[in-house]
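User: what does the whole thing look like in 3D?
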Amino acid sequence: MIELRGIVKRYVLGEETVLALAGVDLHIGRNEYVALIGPSGSGKSTLMNLLGCLDSPSEGHYILNGRDTSSLSEDELAAVRNREIGFVFQSFHLLPRQTALQNVMQPLVYRRMLPAERRKLAIEALTKVGLGDRLDHRPNQLSGGQRQRVAVARALVGQPSILLADEPTGNLDSRTSAEIMALFDALHAQGQTVIVVTHEPDIAAHCRRTIRVFDGRIVEDTQNPARAA
Amino acid sequence: MNVLGEAFRAALASLNAHRLRSFLTTLGILIGTMAVIAVVSVLQGFSESISSQFSDLGSNTLTLEAVNEQENFRSGQINTLSFADVEVLRYKVSGISRVAPIISTPLRGASYKGRNATPQVLGATEESQYVLNVDASVGRYITSSDDKGGRRVVVIGTEVRDELKMPENPVGEFLLLGNEWFRVVGLLEKRGEIFGFSQDNRVIIPFSVARSLTGIFDRTFMEVSFTVTDLTQIAQVRERAIRAVRTNRRIAPGKDDDFEIKAADSFVKQFEQITATATAVLAGIVGISLLVGGIGIMNIMLVSVTERTREIGILKALGATRRDILVQFLLEAALLSLLGGIIGIVLGLLAGMGIASLIPNFPPAHVPVWIMLAAAGFSALVGVVFGIAPASKAAGLDPIEALRYE
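Assistant: Here's the predicted 3D structure for the full assembly of 635 residues, as structure tokens:
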């Protein structure tokens, strides 16, 4: 489903060119549960941005669901993000002035979906993450764990191909972290493809496959022993 | 529509989140719009009342009158129209109907039962009713048979009646004008004042009578109003009339006319021109104030875009295109200044009414609906124009950078 071929990403910083990714080849199939790990500066974030279609590679091809996204325009990438990618961020990134329901409905706005339909799907998604009774709460009325659940619901509402989580538990205590990871486990069990970017071994241990990035390259790609559910 | 509706909702929510700031931002637009509506309402109210007072002079009416230079008055060689000039218009120029000569007689002084008044005494024919747009509210107007028969009858203005303490219905009473007795046959409708000059302090006698009476004076001040049957031919008719009158007055080719044919509404036109100029100057001032207001909006919107960088990053991550973001911010700017504009219009109307009611005898304020719509539309446009820079800044943000923004 995800096919990276010879991905190179360079950044120009002033007069210096930084090579963030130095030729990455990667295949991730449907319903995989992948941990992307590596120290900061390893190119892990760059890889995630590319996987999330927030950025385009300098070289190489990124084929997502059979479509080469490397040469898409900014607006075409926006459409791909909208349909194929569900983002979960470390600091939740909810819209502060909107209710949980409005936050979850937001991605569907860009699909030109009718309000009634948006509402229905958003309520379903929030119910799925256990927040069916918090629809009209604003982010500041919710706990950290609840906020991240809203973010997960927002990521899932459009039924994306990939759930892409960037340090999803970084701002949570261990108990809520466990809750969120349990939620990811459950989603994976339901057939969702999940990619988690993390530096915590505990979190990575939830995943079935671990990809370690270092110095702009994939240095390790291992299958984890299946965990007991 | 759906997306626009959503952007509209988002824009409103964002304005609502910073109410005080939104209000202060749009204050420039508000004050500018308020100023224009206040002044326009006063000016238009004034102009409206002038126009309605003059609209009685139909636009198809032309008036022939003699022209005198300052020099003529000094030397006593005063030009006047002759009765032959009237005949020329009546019989020798085509496309003319209702030739209404009006003599402004030098008669001064009207007496009734020992009381005196000094009305303007006009000699006129039946047709003058349409030119002066007067009618008798009681009794009748001068008729052509009055004129033909040289009857000593008079139609009087209400002020004359009141000054002479005549009965409420003065018809049938006798009035001394100069040295002649006239029977009152009608009372003119009350007209009020134009620029402080009463339109009711006058009496009208048959033209032929006035003519014979003024024969004893050496000068006759007369003007001739006439209507043009086909309004589209007004310029040609005017040309023909000028040529005929020149011939009649034996003005040699190359010499200037000693008379003038004016459109009866030329005064109104002149006045409208003045108000139009005033409005244009005003529009310029308002344009500048809206420009300043617009810059204020641009400034705050730029700040707002910076503040909301991360929010924009989130929206982009969720799949918002450049256009989605652009529309949302443009709409926000437009809405901001439109709200200022609308509040400004309301306050401006109130201010206009206040000003008009403070000045005694001033006509009530009046603002045409199109001015209000234009003001609202223009303020929204200012928002859009000055929203372009901030909105494109927002739309152009790199999602990765924006998400990282603290």
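In plain terms: The mean pLDDT of chain B is 84. Residues 61-264 of chain B form one domain.
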